[in-house]
Amino acid sequence: MPYRYNFITVPQVNVERTDWMWKAFLPEGSNRDHPVVNVFRPNAVDISMVDFPVTIVVVGGFDPLQDWHKGYYEG
Q1: Quick one: signal sequence residues (predicted)?
Q2: Do the Cβ atoms of 75 and 12 come closer than 8 Å?
Q3: Cβ of 65: how many Cβ atoms within 10 Å?
Q4: How high is the pLDDT of residue 10?
Q5: Which residues neighbour 15 within 8 Å (Cβ) at sequence distance 6 or greater?
Q6: Structure letter (DSSP) for residue 11
Q7: Number of domains in the chain
Q8: 3-state secondary structure of 21
Q9: Are 63 and 4 in contact (CB under 8 A)?
């Protein structure tokens, strides 16, 4: 079960609010596999040859999207 479901009922940043944010900022009819937000999806632009600088990824322990952030790190 995705970590974000631990936040279904919390008042700050809960699942309902994060779902609203996804819908508000993605083109109508798209989902979280849209290439703008999921650069590791099967049809995404290949960025494997880009020379990115060394980067530290910090994910908050109570961040409801920590699974999503870890996916970027592991990608």
Answers
A1: none
A2: no
A3: 18
A4: 67
A5: 4, 5, 7, 8, 64
A6: S
A7: 1
A8: helix
A9: no
CA atoms within 13 A on the CB side of 16: 5
Residue by residue, DSSP assigns 50-75 as --PPP------TT-TTHHHHHHHHH-
Q: CA–CA separation, 23 vs 34, rounded Å?
A: 11
What's residue 35's pLDDT? 80
pLDDT score of 30 = 87
Q: What is the pLDDT of residue 53?
A: 92
Cβ burial 21-51 (10 Å sphere, 16+ → b, else e): eeeeeeeeeeeeeeeeebeeeeeeeeeeeee
Burial class (CB in 10 A: 0-12, 13-18, 19+), 64: buried
Mean pLDDT by 10 residues, the chain (75 residues): 70 77 88 80 80 87 79 77
In which domain, by residue range, is 9 found?
Answer: 1-75
